[in-house]
Amino acid sequence: MRKMMISGVTALALLTGGIVGFGSVGSSVEAAQATTKFKDVPATHWASSAINSAVEQGYFKGYADGTFKPSSPVTKAEMASILGRLSDQPNASTQEQNNFTDIPEWAKSGVSIAIAKGFISPSNYKGKLDAQGALQRGEMATWLTQGLTVVDPEYKQAFSDVTNTVVPAKEYFTGKLASAQKNAVAVALGTGLMSVANDKTFGVDRTTTRAEVAVLIARYAAVAKTKPADFQGLNELRAVGLTGTNLSVIANSFKKTPERKIILSSNQKYDEVVNDDFSKVRNKEIVTDTNYADLKVLNWIIVDTNVASNSRSIYYPVFVDEGVKLQNDRYFSFVEFDLNIKSASMNQPQAGSLLNSATFNPLASPQSKSFLSYGAPKTGDYTLNRGVFGVTNPIYWAQGMLHFNQSVTRAVTLETKEGAIFSVIDTK
């Protein structure tokens, strides 16, 4: 799989507005690095090269006191004008009119062009853009990903596919990511356009700074030249959105269990009930081994710890601490369960007995520092003394293992009360 890597020089060269297209490299990059200096942008600043190039190419200007103010927010009118200069961005097939009533004269043309290129949809607003207001990261994600859907129809499909995905950002796990922004945030993360901060939040309400814009335009240019299928992270987000699991992306050697390796009841026919489509059992009541609770599986995330860092699952930093490695014959299995407890005092070991599965194991949640920092729901949120659940309908993430050692591997199977059977086995 081809990975999208942007070197420093290439990224800088992309910050050229209407002068060149998405991928052109100009000699002005070196000139910018050599000639443009700001008192508040030392060479060690994380965006110094991008800032210098953006100024050299006319995106920004410095201030009279010799500063750039890299942390100052960018207004919506300013960002729209910058996006309008992307010469390789095609026009949207369906054109909307610039009916905003609050655009300053200097920005009207730029905003109209940004609308024509598909970045901004006036129909999503109520007549006013709040043009002089600071652009927040959630809205930035929306603008950029809407632009991608114009560049390539497959991005439009990807935007739709992630509707029901697990978004690797703290706001998602804590229920603070608005549905109107979820898809844009997912695509922005899946393509590497944007990332979470050190506190694991995407920061939808945080303002976008001048330094960030200098880098984001370069990233957008690179992503726009790349097919959606070339981003492993986006592939995972799409797979989870459509089926509930990233198994096909991370562990694609798992295939439908052959008929000879699965035991069915006399009234079940293999071709009618057995499949490898996890969506058939997602969010459905599962047949359990014990009767302490009814159980549904909402999502199933696989993480391989034995791959290079640039091939890791997009969910690795959510669930696994840096440096942790499993044996070569197993993956981490993280499952989001929805339980409806029948017993008055069901405890965690009894929860673990519901499926008696090492892979789908409701016993306990991950204890990694990474997982805890994302604020995802865990068993500890619902249990009292001695692991007894204090609520009747806990929804939480739990940790298990997925083995693929041929000597110990058995089929991984879930059966719904409706009769559908999901069953896969490793074929390596």
UniProtKB/TrEMBL annotation:
Protein's name in the database: SLH domain-containing protein
Origin: domain of life: Bacteria
Signal peptide: none
Coiled coil, from the record: none
Annotated SLH domain residues: 34-97, 168-231
Classification via InterPro entries: Cell_Envelope_Struct_Comp, SLH_dom
